């Protein structure tokens, strides 16, 4: 048998700064911001000139970039914590633990997933109550905020942000 396609592939192309490669050596869309993604392609996006939305997110009917994926995922995660039982049964606690473990393994941005798994080994998910789960989720999100140089969120406000709405 001849060499596999991997061994005959062209030498790796140089990609612009910010473009994260997937484990297949190709640019990973869900690991890269749309602005960085757009800088490596001259493709015309639907309805306009080349890369007119380079500073915004991807068009709504395109695959998500790392930011859109992140915002949607945090919305789901915090909403799960917000609707988690106040006093969960052992079965519900197991389900929440399992869900977070699988989520951290299946998250589509592999660099994000690896760091998140590492965080979860340092700071085990707390699922004993809604309050604990919501606080832990807030701390997990803050860990990513810190890594990205973003402002940390005040975790005493997680429930107002994700369950009850602001008190005014
Ligand atoms: P987001 O950070 O998405 O937050 C959405 C909203 O949540 C905010 O507007 C705010 O109202 C609220 N919020 C913010 N912080 C908290 C908090 N601590 N608790 C409760 N609510 C809060 N991106 C990368 O570039 N690199 C990574 O390695 C990476 N890892 C990620 C790992 C995971 C598990 C997830 C889900 C996302 C990851 N992201 C990563 C995406 C990143 O966290 C952001 O989602 C993305 O940069 C968009 O940020 P944003 O400023 O729009 O708001």
From TrEMBL:
<feature type="domain" description="ERV/ALR sulfhydryl oxidase">
    <location>
        <begin position="62"/>
        <end position="162"/>
    </location>
</feature>
<feature type="compositionally biased region" description="Polar residues">
    <location>
        <begin position="1"/>
        <end position="7"/>
    </location>
</feature>
<dbReference type="InterPro" id="IPR017905">
    <property type="entry name" value="ERV/ALR_sulphydryl_oxidase"/>
</dbReference>
<keyword id="KW-0496">Mitochondrion</keyword>
<keyword id="KW-0560">Oxidoreductase</keyword>
<dbReference type="GO" id="GO:0050660">
    <property type="term" value="F:flavin adenine dinucleotide binding"/>
</dbReference>
<feature type="region of interest" description="Disordered">
    <location>
        <begin position="1"/>
        <end position="23"/>
    </location>
</feature>
<keyword id="KW-0285">Flavoprotein</keyword>
<dbReference type="InterPro" id="IPR039799">
    <property type="entry name" value="ALR/ERV"/>
</dbReference>
<dbReference type="GO" id="GO:0005758">
    <property type="term" value="C:mitochondrial intermembrane space"/>
</dbReference>
<protein>
    <recommendedName>
        <fullName>Sulfhydryl oxidase</fullName>
        <ecNumber>1.8.3.2</ecNumber>
    </recommendedName>
</protein>
<dbReference type="InterPro" id="IPR036774">
    <property type="entry name" value="ERV/ALR_sulphydryl_oxid_sf"/>
</dbReference>
<dbReference type="Pfam" id="PF04777">
    <property type="entry name" value="Evr1_Alr"/>
</dbReference>
<dbReference type="GO" id="GO:0016971">
    <property type="term" value="F:flavin-dependent sulfhydryl oxidase activity"/>
</dbReference>
<feature type="region of interest" description="Disordered">
    <location>
        <begin position="42"/>
        <end position="66"/>
    </location>
</feature>
<keyword id="KW-1015">Disulfide bond</keyword>
<keyword id="KW-0274">FAD</keyword>
């Amino acid at each position: 048998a001849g060499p596999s396609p991997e061994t005959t592939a062209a030498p790796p192309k140089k990609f612009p700064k910010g473009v994260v490669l997937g484990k297949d050596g190709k640019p990973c869309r869900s690991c890269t911001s749309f602005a960085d993604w757009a800088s490596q392609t001259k493709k015309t996006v639907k309805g306009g000139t080349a890369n007119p939305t380079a500073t915004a997110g991807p068009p709504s009917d395109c695959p998500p970039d790392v930011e859109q994926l992140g915002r949607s995922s945090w919305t789901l995660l915090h909403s799960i914590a917000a609707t988690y039982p106040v006093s969960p049964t052992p079965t519900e606690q197991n389900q929440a633990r399992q869900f977070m473990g699988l989520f951290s393994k299946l998250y589509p941005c592999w660099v994000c997933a690896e760091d998140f798994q590492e965080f979860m080994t340092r700071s085990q998910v707390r699922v004993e109550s809604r309050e604990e789960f919501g606080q832990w989720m807030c701390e997990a999100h803050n860990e990513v905020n810190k890594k990205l140089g973003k402002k940390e969120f005040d975790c005493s406000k997680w429930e107002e942000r994700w369950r009850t709405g602001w008190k005014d």
